[in-house]
Amino acid sequence: MMRTSFFAFLFLLFLFDGSAQKIEPKHTFQFELGLPNGFSNKPFRQYMQGLMVLAPSYQYAFKNGLALGGGIRYHYFQVNQFRIPTKTIGGMHSASAFAKIGYQKFLTERVELDAGVKVGYSENLFNTDRNKTLGQNPYRVTSLIIEPTFKIGIVADEQVAYSFFVAYGVQGFALKPNMLGLESFGFNAAEVAVQNKRAVSFLTFGFGLTYYFKEKS
Questions:
Q1: Minimal CA–CA distance to 174: which of 201, 154, 155, 151?
Q2: What is the pLDDT of residues 33-61, one digit of tens each?
Q3: What is the DSSP secondary structure assignment for residue 184, as one 8-state letter?
Q4: 4, 46, 134, 151: which has the fewest Cβ within 10 Å?
């Protein structure tokens, strides 16, 4: 449904393209809002439910399309009480700071392509009722992050564009029972060994807002 609405919006903007003006911004402010979904690590995929990703950032684009930037990202995953073997209430808060290298290009006067990779550091806090009982609430895990991102932007006027993006984020740790205050997820020893080698990752779909700063005359 979300994809259908986006492409319908894209089509309508092309129909009313008569007032578009060509812009070549250097400095931009971007804000992303998305819904993350657990991917590779099985315990994380099954027992953690993504609720939101928020990511404000700044980006500078060179004339050849190379873009450099940086920003912060917050995401929250809630424990899925309907799937986890032992009833647990709480979730994971994650705050990250990142640098970005990418490529920015205007395909037409209204359509912008922005693709890149975010690399940074993440502070992850597991806040659950079981951790509280154990006196270790929140349980803290720090890690590196890497997140390839692909974005299509639709220019609304000289300074504002709306976009649809998809991103694949990888955290440098595997989800383990003790992070949630549990003794086990109920997997056999062989499965535990496999999953402990698979980093937490998630696929995010969402929308963004881009603000283009005007150049001083």
A1: 201
A2: 999 999 888 999 999 999 999 999 999 99
A3: -
A4: 4
